[in-house]
Amino acid sequence: MTILCYTHYIISMKKTDMYDDVRKNLIQELRRGSVVIAVLSRLSKEHYGYTLLKELNELGFSIEQNTLYPLLRRLETQGLLSSQWKVEDPRPRRYYIRSETGTEVFHDLIKESKKLQKILEVLCNEK
Question: Domain range holding 117?
């Protein structure tokens, strides 16, 4: 009986761990889809990478450096951001700001996000 209970416990733990992993991965995927909106939302005024990272984290949108910096470079390459180097402290810093195109795309993304949210609310509240 003890072995049976222990085996059941181990199997249920593995299932729970598996579901936890699946849940964590899906949440990460959902957040990954929102990171561009979060970054663009803060770049209506100039930020350098570290202050942007700190601000997003303080607002509850956790993002890591190894995610943020490649994203900033990609958004700049796509024409959604512009940047410039400034030397204010002992070392130069690259400051980013949304371009005009970036602002248009940001507003389009917000509209699409709200539209999807409304659809999801309907789908999730169906009985």
Answer: 36-125
Q: Rounded CA gap, 14 and 17, in Å?
A: 5
The CA-atom distances, in angstroms, between 6 and each of 19, 20, 114, 116 are 20, 21, 48, 45
Whole-structure pTM value = 0.78
Q: How many residues does this entry show for the chain? A: 127
Q: End-to-end alpha-carbon separation of the chain, Å?
A: 42
Residue type, 15: K
Token pair, residue 2, equals: 């003890």
Model pLDDT for residues 61-79, shown as the tens digit of each residue: 989 999 999 999 999 999 9
Q: How many domains does the chain have?
A: 1
CATH number of the domain enclosing 56: 1.10.10.10
